[in-house]
Amino acid sequence: MRRLTCQNCHHDVFFDNTHCLECGHTLGYAPTMFEMLSSIDGYEFRSGDAPHYACFNRDIIACNWLTDQPGTLCSACRHNNVIPDLSINAHVTLWSRIEKAKRVLFYSLIAWDLPRPTKAEDPQGGLAFDFLADQPQPDGTVTSHTTGHDNGLITINIAEGDDAERERRRQSLGEPYRTLVGHFRHEIGHYYFDRLVLPNSERLERCRALFGDERSDYAAALQHHYDAGPPADWRNSFISSYATAHPFEDFAETFAHYMHMVDGLETAAAFGVKADTAAPSPYQDGTVDELIDAWVPVTVAVNAVNRSMGQPDLYPFVLSQPVHEKLGFVHDLMRPASRQRTSVGRFAAGLFSFARPGVAH
After folding, report:
1. Burial classification of residue 252, based on how many CB atoms lie within 10 Å of its CB (0-12 exposed, 13-18 middle, 19 or more buried)
2. H or E, element range at 81
3. Helix (H), strand (E), coil (C) string for 118-183
4. 311 vs 259: CA distance, rounded Å
């Protein structure tokens, strides 16, 4: 993610800030400009002569994104299909946290200029979100909602916005990593499989060669995964244990990981972890080999920092050669030939100022 500053005082601000702590101005993020604008009245923001307006959801869930028209939803919020019951205060809090993670997702989708129509714009191929709460029943049981994707509709159980509940689920499922941003990046992987891979026979054939045949029985495969667990040697070929469950899940987990890697690289570079200030953007430049060569030393460094603070590794993953090849498929998917640029090693050679240490991670 790019480094952001207040338009008024040029003080550093974060992606989700609604106010500048230095000058007190109200902040609003202009998504297509990748810039943070500031306003005195908190309503109208300007970049040159062009006006921008606060998202309709700003006062409800502190959405800090801007729109072109007053009283409308921003380009992330307009994809919402179902939202929680806002008469329950806890729902508002959980939904706000979930939307914050969704805006991180949309930052990347916009950076790659990926197709993202709403269901109103494209009923068959559009993207929408249901944010649902578990429902207690009169008999004492609870109707729970599973996070997932179905034909462009992504469902997120708002309980995932509760840090304690999400940690409980992470431990019960034996996952090393479970975050809201991770959920969104995984589920959007399913969406883009349907939209970018399935309709293209050449891509689909290559995808099946790498990930397996997605036509295999999904329900049976998932049940086997939960009953028997992943193969003992899963790290040799998969980015996560869940990726072993079915080719669909392998693709989605790899897609999400590619998003982690690229956005992590951009963030590291934005905050000065680089030797070449003219290094290209990982969203637009570099081969997959260059991106991975640049990413590995970052992960070693952040893990070392976490350990020095008594925290578990921030990056508990291993990039085996088969995973490397799968990431290459996603890389090509995100960067069609018409948009590719040639970097000839600039990214890996010039971006990071520390040498790649010879340690495993």
Report:
1. buried
2. strand 80-82
3. CCCCCCCCCCEEEEECCEECCCCCEECCCCEEECCEEEEEHHHHCHHHHHHHHHHCCCCCCCHHHH
4. 23
Residue from 267, 293, 212 nearest 2 by CA: 267
- Residue-wise pLDDT for 195-221, tens only, equals 999 999 999 999 999 999 999 999 999
List the Cα angle 166/168/172 in 5-degree steps.
Answer: 120
Question: What kind and span of H or E run contains 44?
Answer: strand 44-47
Rounded to whole angstroms, how far apart are CA atoms 23 and 240?
44
Q: Which tokens belong to 207? A: 């995808």
Task: List Cβ neighbours of 70 (8 Å cut-off, separation of 6 or more).
Answer: 43, 44, 53
Write down the pLDDT at residue 170: 74
Centre a 10 Å sphere on the Cβ of residue 141 and count the other Cβ atoms it contains: 9
Q: 153 forms bridges with which residues in the sheet?
A: 128, 150
- Count Cβ neighbours within 10 Å for each residue of 37-68 and write b for 16 or more, e otherwise: bbbeebeebeeeeeebbbbbbbeebebbbbbe
Closest of 11, 16, 47 to residue 32, by C-alpha: 47
Angle between helices 180-192 and 89-111 (to 10 degrees): 50
pTM: 0.89
N residues, the chain: 361
Q: Taking Cα atoms as reference points, which of 19, 14, 17, 18 lies closest to residue 1? A: 14
